[in-house]
Amino acid sequence: MGEKDQYSDVLVIGAGIAGIEASLLLSKADRKVHLIEKTSYTGGTAIKFEEVFSNMECSTCMVAPRQQELLQDKNINLLTLAEVEDVKGSFGKFTVKIRKKARYVDMENCIGCDACFEPCPVSLKNEFEEGLNERKAIYVPCAGALPNVPMIDTEHCLRFKGKDCKACQEACMFEAIDFKQKDEQLELKVGGIIAATGFKIFDPEQVPQYGYGKFDDVYTAVEFERLYASNGPTEGNIVLKNGKAPKSAAIVHCVGRDKKGYCSSVCCMYSLKFNHYLKSKIPEIKISELYTDLCIPGKSHQKFYEKMKETGTDLIRAQEVKVDKQGEEKTITYNNGNKKDSLQADMVILASAIESKDDASDLAKILGISLDEYGFFKEEHSDVSSVITSKPGVFIVGCAQGPKNIQDSVSQASAAVGKILSLSK
Amino acid sequence: MERKIGVYICECGPNIAEKVDIDRVIDAVSPLEGVVVAKRYKLLCSADGKKFLEEEIKKHGLTHLVVSACSPKEHEKTFMEVCKNAGINPYLFQLANIREQCAWITDDKDEATKKAIRLTKAAIRRVRYHASLEKKEIESNPDVLVIGGGIAGIEASLQLTSPDRKIYLVEKASSLGGLITNFEKTYPSMKPGSDSIKQKIQDVNKNENIKVFTDSEVEEVLGFFGNFEVKVKNVTEEDKTVEFNVGAVVLATGSTLFDPEKTPQYGYKKFDNVLTSLEFEKMNISGKISLKNGKPPKSVAIIHCVGRDEKGYCSEICCMYSLKFVRYFMDKIPDVNVSNFYSDLCIPGKSHQKFYEQTKGKNVDFVRSSDVDVTKKGDKLGVQYKDENGSKSNLSVDMVILAPAIEPTSDAPQLAEITNISQGDGGFFAEEHEKLGPVSTSTEGVYITGCAQGPKDISDTIIQAEAASGKILSSLVPGRKIEPEVKTSHISESLCIGCKLCLSVCSYGAITFDEAKKISVVNEVICRGCGNCVAACPSGAATIKHFTFNQLYQEISEAVQ
Predict the structure, then answer these.
(1) For the whole model, what pTM was predicted?
(2) Could you tell me the domains of chain B?
(3) Which residues in chain A are closer than 8 Å to B196, comparing Cβ atoms?
(4) Of B12, B345, B463, Cβ closest to residue A111
């Protein structure tokens, strides 16, 4: 920074697409970046998608080069399994305490050969795959995760429960498994902070009429993304619980919108994308999209919708949607205008609202910023830049600030960098 | 020069060693011409491995390095760095991928070994034809040209300005501010719109590092990132032009409204009291909402999505500003009846639905409709429409406000040509990448912001202006040189037949035509090495450095032997 005794390093919280963009841009400006990521991997939610609207580009192919660049960037200090514990000071002079959990796998020695997974005797549901498949106690969340270094889940690893298991260590040819690693506490001095912590989706069990959690083959949007993903639990085969391909599917929009009180802005578009997913894998499938208002703003989106219309999908304006089960099939009843109607579907996909993360309020407290009435990080006011918070030097970007698509998240990330570079030149 | 090639094969722990007979690979490649050493190593990418390679290069006086290991994606950079540290040009190196392409794809050790031999031999053959490439550095000008003095241009200028960076802000109209000066309030905060911009205009005018040109147009932008030459013309005094140099260009030229005369069913310009949204904003800010006869309207219809079918996209902000109009009415003519004729309510984002809920009221109607028609009915206007169930209905109102689509300004094609960028969906300026490069373009150093890139609200416009600033502040630093791409295209003077095919396929404007010599010439500073011209060139005159025909031919012919 221009002024003496101010810190030029920047803290970026969250290594999703927004955090990656911010970090790479800051590095380009020769700023040192500390990029803090709670999970063991980078890429956030964007790497869960097989393709992105509206050009249907492969998401991994889009994000992976950026992740790779990030890992090789000498200005960027990526700290995975790390969380912010405390922030003191003001713009230009923040002191940040970070708690970094031990990975128990040496990042230098490990080459990512996966030899340690198989011998691990513990199996449990894989959170990254929305519980649709299993992982071991030593694992990477999915094939192609970056950094390609596994972590040990100490809650489930037998060794950390007092047993003398060292199956993974014995399998490793590179002496990369290190049970002696310890959690660390780090103190960083940074001039600015960018919070890019992302979102989670609304739990449809809170709206029981959709049958989520009650019936098989009722999926959330993220679960369905993983079902279609070539590196996902079914290697991209869209199948029902019984192993068969669905003959019909219903995509229900606006799930949880009434509860949340806002439109999540991306669901219509990704639901249309799902239509493409289904048709490309199962051309003869019958699809119904149940929506309230079609919200496809912007110059490129309607085109995508027009193309989808040609595929023969039923677009049904529907209220009071309810999912019931009759035998193998699910019956979906709804109001269309003034009349009641129903349809049958093998698979139901729920486009659930985007909401703030559970720990958003804790992090807001630590950062000294506030939450809005919906639980997202609150911008100072909506007429100036939406990345500015009430706390000078702390900026908010991406879905942590509010629901938005990748393009808008990336724009906000660059904008926050612009703010930091401009205010401290 | 005598070539001394060193070949090193990585065991990658058991990954390669167990699946490939490395000793057989070494035996196969050792006798090859120029190979002075061939060895195996446990893990070449490790700290010890890199040190080992560096020592080997020095010890044997190697001129070229071949490593057979993993994917170039993983470690090409690692080994190029090793070359640099050991004193050989990093481009005199080739990596053969014998892990992902041999060891990991078969259980047949013999097959894997055979293929590893082929790939390693091919890499050796190729590296013989490699040439040293050097990074160049060129001086850059940190100043920035901002075209358009609306909210986006003003925000960008204010954020970019500093004592060591001059901003040239060029505005077509006679004053700064753009469309927002017409808005009494902005949604969803309903805070003053025109007042907030006035303060910013003052800030711009006071700033001695921002040079403002009003009544002016950009006539010419030549050059490349870091070094653009700009010509600006004053439109009121035709012969008055100014020239200056900048390092980057921000296009913030805004948008205009679809002309509702093209959709005659809405009665625009045919009947009195049919206004566009902008005309209504202007009427509102002037202080009095009234009909042609001077009286306040008792009933109003706001028709959404005017021109949407013609344009083929949703303009994103019309639903929200229509709601804002309802608020204007609620404040000023509380007993007026307002009916919104809409198709789908598009109010994305966290704070908009609440605004909608708060806008509902007893005199406010939302009618989901299609096939809307406006006719004259005595003193009144008749709005005919099909309702949600397909039945025809109609409503008499005093005033009709149309929400026409947002479209690019009429000079967008000209500006795109001048700045060498393209127009994409809807004729708006095309971004470099829909997701990851929303404010960059195919021309490095030219950025697009606000509604010139696509329809958007004020908040998103400000974000894009700041994002473009972020891009410029990070890459165009006063006093710092810029490093152009090394692996650029080159067009041979003697082979070029002057067909100009390459000019049409170059996305970056890196190729010009030398009219005197009748040949194409690549500007290596602009070229990004995409290879389009190489593929298009019918005479084999265009080649990409480090991917020359000969290098590829040699590599492939060895691999398929």
Answers:
(1) 0.92
(2) 5-133 (3.40.50), 144-254+409-475 (3.50.50.60), 260-404 (3.50.50.60), 489-545 (3.30.70.20)
(3) 383
(4) B12
